[in-house]
Amino acid sequence: MDKKLPEILVCPQCRGSLISASGALVCKACQLKYPIRDGIPIMLVDEAASLKGNRHQGRSSEPVATFRIIGGPNKGLSFHLDHFTCKALGRAASDPNKTAIFGSIDTTLALDEGTKGLIQHYVGKQFKDTKSKADTGSFKRTSDIILDDMTISRLHAMIFYGETGVGVLDLVSRNGTFVNGEEIESRLLKKDDAIELGETKIIFEG
Fold this sequence. Notes:
- The chain is mainly beta.
- The chain has two domains: 18-50, N-terminal domain of TfIIb (Single Sheet), CATH 2.20.25; 64-94 and 111-204, Sandwich (Tumour Suppressor Smad4), CATH 2.60.200.
- The protein has two helices and 17 strands.
- The strands form three sheets. Strands 7-6-17-16-13-14 form a six-stranded antiparallel β-sheet, with no helix packed on it. Strands 8, 9, 10, 11, 12 and 15 form a six-stranded mixed β-sheet that branches. Strands 1, 2, 3, 4 and 5 form a five-stranded antiparallel β-sheet that branches.
- The longest helix is centred in the middle third of the chain and has 14 residues, at 113-126.
- It starts with a helix and ends with a strand.
- The model is unreliable at 54-61, 95-107 and 129-137 (pLDDT under 50).
């Protein structure tokens, strides 16, 4: 890991400074420890461990949806989605010639009004049941997944976990979003489905 990163990165929960210790980046204010895997800091609150030795208590006790990246620049990394949350997938909006740090730059990607309307339409279409019709207000947006893949759009797709399951929708990306090789606008996912964004391939592990 670049020794300068602790001076550049901040805690995604409190925006406070970090120190490098025991193979991790530590926020003393939040008492959280962010892991470093293959030299890459994983700056996601969901992945942080408490300095007291417990898993971060912000993680929901309900089942989580797990995704693993099996192809592309971020191969080998995993992330989770809690019930009634959503995450955007995209590349860093900073200098396109720079390499993005997974999950640490622009942790919330900008959504314009047109994109919000698109999300509203497709979430309502896919995430509905007999009791209620889901909308963007039904999902808490958590830290987005920022990928190093320069073949994807800055705001490429969004994943959701609602009452009717886990799904993905394309945000009118330049090169499209594919599930099991088929280009989609939106799709509810089944275990072991493969999401493809540019050079990145993500498996939904359930």
